[in-house]
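User: Batch of two.

Assistant: Item 1 of 2:
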Amino acid sequence: MQWHSAWAFLLLLLLPPLGWWLWRRSRTAALRFSDTRLLADDPPSWRVRSRGVLVAVRLICLGLLIVALARPRQGTALESIHTDAVAMEIVVDCSSSMAERMVYEGQVLNRLEVVQRVGAEFLLGNGDDLTGRTGDLIGLVQFARYADTVCPLVTNPQIVADFLRDTNIVQLRSEDGTAIGAGIQLAAARLQHAERELHERNARLLAAGGDEDVEPDLTIKSKVIVLLTDGQENVNQVDPLEAARMAADWGIRIYTIGIGSPQRGFFAPRGPDERLLKAIAQRTGGFYGLATDGDTLRRIYEQIDALEKSEIKSVQYMDYAERFGTWALAGLGVLLAEIIAGTTIWRKIP
């Protein structure tokens, strides 16, 4: 319990002298007699002897009203969190070449498995240099011959990590290929659409609130695509550089990561197209990195993690529930009881 106007308790100091004055006043006779010897043998009734009760009741009434004047209130601590988030699409190559072998922490896995494991560290944190992407809007796109949205933009990185873990290398030859341009185009469109929807939502909230000082709980600070591929564009549905130009026009940065060695492998006869990936990154303000194993991929993610940070602002405040009404009603109830008692049981004549 807190008191908004604690100074009101100083008025309690006036109650003792006021009570003494009221008690003295209550003893003043209503009728005056020239000779009181006639009443000497008539003892005072219990009503007369207990008339001081009215004084006590009035003091209780005033005490309750003074407490109400001090405005007792119950405070609840609340927290308002505003996130200026990074909106990020992770775009993963799931073509057959991602079955090529790659080293991760001393184990030999396929490239997609390494992407999944290090990606989970990036999303959730690894207790070391990667702290996790709490507060971000993150989505997942996979591509081979076609690009598909695997996970829409969400604020829970665990959901994205679960979807990433469940991605698989394409099995059908008709679905195999490396559509880098289509993957970029789909991811960029998703980011642009999310920003527009969020802007409209915040505008509606501000209009409904009618308070210019109200701050939306979520805004987009920057838009980012992290593209991971080990191949070269061979579908030609969408020109990767044209898709990159569109992304740049929408204010989207693209970080490109080449997976594996530039040298030939059994499943990847040509390796990642480093020239193309560098051009995409340069055109959009990102950078290109080559990941030959789990450690180098982790270091690339650490660079991205350092560059792209969400800003989370927390404002704590108290929500108060006023409790003075209970005390005021109690005081008025006692006052009403005093009035009734004073006009009935302890009625004074005249």
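Item 2 of 2:
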Amino acid sequence: MKRMKRMERMKRMKRMKRMERLKRIKRSEEDADDEEDEEDEEDADDEEDADDEEDADDEEDEEDEEDADEIDEDADDEEDADDEEVEEMLMMKRMKRMKRMLMMKRMLMMKRMLMMKRMKRQVSCSVFLLILQSSNGRSVI
């Protein structure tokens, strides 16, 4: 009788251990799926950031070409300019162009700063998750 009860208890314990192990495996699979989804989202964000940066570089190149054309035109205008008013007008054009270039550079720098902050935050979150997983006894990989 005691032996039967002990056998039943052993079977119950084995069954519970098996269930716990299955639950842990299922949780780890869900965590792996979540991590894959997060990595896919991060990759998509990185691609968008790269596209934005390429677009900004293309715009900057186009503006540089336009500025070079304007400088050439200004040089031609300066050769023809004998009048002080015309020289003042050319100076105003240059000032506006320089101001526009500074604004574009400032905007690009702000975009890059925001992108760097976002990447830093993503890295911090990833490191935190790795530390959290390792402290829970799960494998880091």
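The chain has two helices and no strands.
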